[in-house]
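Researcher: I'm preparing a figure for a lab meeting and need a structural model of a single chain. I don't have an experimental structure, so a prediction will have to do for now. The sequence is pasted below. Please return the structure as tokens so I can convert it later.
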Amino acid sequence: MSKTTAKSKPKSSKKPPTKTPKKNGRPTKYSDKLADRICQKIAEGYSVRSICKEKDMVSMQTLFRWLRESDKFREQYAHACEERSYAQAEEIIDIADNATNDYMEKLEGDGYIFNSENVQRSRLRIDTRKWLMSKMNPKVYGDKLDMTTNGNDIGVALSARQAEQLLKSQNRPSGILEKLQITALFAEYCIAIDPKYQLEWFHAEIAKELEQGYRRLLAGEDVRLMIFMPPRHGKSDTATQKFPSWVLGKSPNIPIVVSSYSAELASDFGQKTRDIMQSATYTKMFSTRLRADARAKGRWITKQGGGYTAVGVGGALTGRGFKIGIIDDPF
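Model: Understood. Here is the structure written out token by token.
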């Protein structure tokens, strides 16, 4: 009788396949915990872009969706932005006090030279923060408009947007516009003199630079300012028409020359500026008046000796000095 034996199968050296770990994507579902963390970082001074670059954070698209859909998060975000403005104010102090790299060693010879590039960079960092602070927390850091009536304070300090809303309001008391004496910023003057004027952020920047240039001019500085913007964005309306009227309201003895590619266009600018200065609103704001015998649209003179001269390219200016010269569309 034969005996049989069962052979055992050799064990396989292959290991059972392992499951690939599931990758966790960015969170997309709103949670109070994550919202608190985001707003805390914003309040500490971090930008939204830098926060969303972190691996365990939401994407910018998700964050903006939360802002659209959640009233609670939108309000929390607004408060965080206001708090960030205080952190940025502290950053400005640190940037201004930090003189590192303001001077650098000369490549040839001994000694140090002034590093203007570093100083300009610091100035840009400060100006950027100041602009953001004025937008995120206008009640504290925004430009204010002081308004008086008949020399008596009426007890309000308005931002540019609030002034625009006041002047456009259909329910304002009768005659309030004519009683206002604007003593502060050129931007607010633009709104007061023209209720249809739409003050955007770039208009405010232009107005600020023009006003600073005017004050530097009065201090004896040689001021040059160039404005580059697309067509139909209000450059001429702000800088060539309203600005001369504001300057002559404050300094009626200043002579101004405006030049353009054609004498006709320059004269049209002069006519619009003249019409502003003869308006009832303007005459309530300022004491500047035009001479009755010199009111042509391209050439008019104030009673105090200042005035406006329009000239086209190639036109004669011999014998006509000026304190402010404006070139608008010379080509």
